[in-house]
Amino acid sequence: MKLSPFTLKETEEYFRSKGIEMERYDIVRAYMAFGGVPYYLGYVKTGISIEQSVDEAIFKENAPLVGEFKRLFNTLFTNSDKYLKIVSFLSKRNYGYTREEIAKATGISAGGGLSDYLERLSEADFVEQYRPAMSVSKEDYYRLKDCFCIFWLRFVDSVSGLDPHFWQNNHGSNKTVSWQGIAFEQICLSHLESIRRALGISGISTVSSKMIIPSEKAGDGGQLDLVIERGDRQVNLCEMKFYSSEVSIDQKESLKLRNRKDSFKEKFKVKGSIFLTLVTTFGLKYGTWSSVYQQVLTLDDLFQ
To answer: What is the pLDDT of residue 223?
Structure first.
């Protein structure tokens, strides 16, 4: 019987059932490390910080989750080394790789069972298969979507001689800040229905996906966090930003966003309106340039 990971709302209810009252910002930070798996979330303790809980569960000597990553794959899959090789490779790029790129990097050809491996990883909620939004190509991408795996491969597998206070000592590093952006984006992508509801488009047919625009006009490499193509011919271009306070927009950022919107409209000949949409933690700080975003969603919207 397949059991899907908890949503953010279910995680909040789970913590409350254990007598843990926590700000939604901290719930998201716990979810980034442990994912939506109740067994892992059970190591979040009341009275200590998220950083301490992570150290207690993963980094301290004889921590209960030491070795959990490989143990998990050994339990779920025969030939687990093949699955681990695929997952480890997918962790290197946020938006994932094509089947051809995966085969080349891992040495597992289509004839060697690559399709079966990817299908089983998708069924187990580790990997997502998707086609970039507005794509004219029939080539799909595969990306790692499991938060616990992403955390483990970035901070546990890559570190030798673990510090028992590793997370408390490193949670503010540049590497951690970069990871938080990726993890928050993944959480948003796994809560698409909440985003659709908050935008008031639950009753409209939509196609949602990440996107890569191979064009210098995009200005920043062309990757868009989320594109929602709507049945009413409108499009939401969504950016996810994990901040500890309100997001501030200056003139340079506003110009970049407007150029991105114009580039998208020109490249894909969009006839309807394009709405720049921000999904963030605590909202957008009002200012001269803040109107570049037509819609702003916060953590509370993701918990609905």
So the answer is: 65
